[in-house]
Amino acid sequence: EADIYQTPRYLVIGTGKKITLECSQTMGHDKMYWYQQDPGMELHLIHYSYGVNSTEKGDLSSESTVSRIRTEHFPLTLESARPSHTSQYLCASSEAGGRFAEAFFGQGTRLTVV
Amino acid sequence: QKEVEQNSGPLSVPEGAIASLNCTYSDRVSQSFFWYRQYSGKSPELIMSIYSNGDKEDGRFTAQLNKASQYVSLLIRDSQPSDSATYLCAGGAGGTSYGKLTFGQGTILTVHP
């Protein structure tokens, strides 16, 4: 069973607030991902990290930012939440490449901005 | 061209039938391939992985990879209503993006009794 955790699971917050979505994994994986997914829609990669101090933006433009100061921790921050940020955010990690590229997912954070 | 493309679906099959899900990929995604299942409101879970040309079987699931045609598929035999979900194809990149996983848009499968 994968050991990757996201908190909170659900968050309802007002417009303009700053929020941080937490993601931690205990598997020592180098690669970590943040995906955004609306109900019934496809996964969109918004941030990717190769390892500590290495991050890049994904295929879908996002106003969020990420940091990777420790291997196990990959938080996502929204400086000023807006209703358009309402979505499910999924964090994932993988060990390496090739046969070890398989990603394990956290349970997700469902964000609602009112 | 999208790096990983699933162009079948939504798919509806009767219980007990074989469900066939297809995926094509670009040159950037060539190292390894994975099939995930995602139930509504849940996170994706890995069900199959394949790295070499040919077939790989695991219970009712068979993954097929054809690198010459850049094609990967998933067959589900004896489909059950509990198989109803979105199936995601994913590929691991090579080169400068080694290990980066890219997902297709998903295929919705419905197995009706």
List the helices and strands and how they pair.
The complex is a heterodimer of chains A (114) and B (113).
Chain A: E1 4-7, E2 10-13, E3 19-25, E4 31-37, E5 44-51, E6 54-57, E7 65-66, E8 76-78, E9 87-94, E10 103-105, E11 109-113
Parallel strand pairs in A: 2-11
Antiparallel strand pairs in A: 1-3, 3-8, 4-5, 4-9, 5-6, 7-8, 9-10, 9-11
Chain B: E1 4-5, E2 11-14, E3 19-25, E4 29-38, E5 45-50, E6 54-58, E7 61-66, E8 71-76, E9 85-93, E10 101-103, E11 107-112
Parallel strand pairs in B: 2-11
Antiparallel strand pairs in B: 1-3, 3-8, 4-5, 4-9, 6-7, 7-8, 9-10, 9-11
Write down the Rg of chain A.
13 Å
Number of strands of chain B: 11
Number of helices of chain B: 0
* Rg over C-alpha atoms of chain B, rounded to the nearest angstrom: 14 Å
Largest interface: A-B, 27 and 26 residues
Strand-pairing-aware structural class of chain B: mainly beta
Spans where pLDDT lies below 50 across 5 or more residues of chain B:
none
What is the N-to-C succession of helices and strands of chain A?
EEEEEEEEEEE
Oligomer: heterodimer
Global geometry of chain A: globular
Strand content of chain A: over 45%
Q: What is the helix/strand order of chain B?
A: EEEEEEEEEEE
Strand tally of chain A is: 11
Pick out the low-confidence regions of chain A: none
Mean pLDDT across every amino acid position of chain A: 92
Given the helix and strand composition of chain A, which structural class is it?
Answer: mainly beta
Give the CA-CA distance, first to last residue of chain B. 37 Å
The number of helical segments of chain A is: 0
Q: Tell me about the largest β-sheet of chain A.
A: 7 strands, mixed
Q: Helix share of residues of chain A?
A: under 10%
Helix content of chain B: under 10%
Structure description:
Chain A is mainly beta. Chain A has no helices and 11 strands. In chain A, strands 2, 4, 5, 6, 9, 10 and 11 form a 7-stranded mixed β-sheet that branches. In chain A, strand 5 (about 45-50) and strand 6 form a beta hairpin. The radius of gyration of chain A is 13 Å and the shape is globular. The relative contact order of chain A is 0.33. With about 110 residues, chain B is mainly β. Chain B contains no helices and 11 strands. Chain B has strands spanning about 5, 10-15, 20-25, 30-40, 45-50, 55-60, 60-65, 70-75, 85-95, 100-105, 105-110. In chain B, a hairpin with a 4-residue loop joins strand 7 (about 60-65) and strand 8. The radius of gyration of chain B is 14 Å and the shape is globular. The termini of chain B are far apart. The interface between A and B is medium-sized, with 27 and 26 residues.
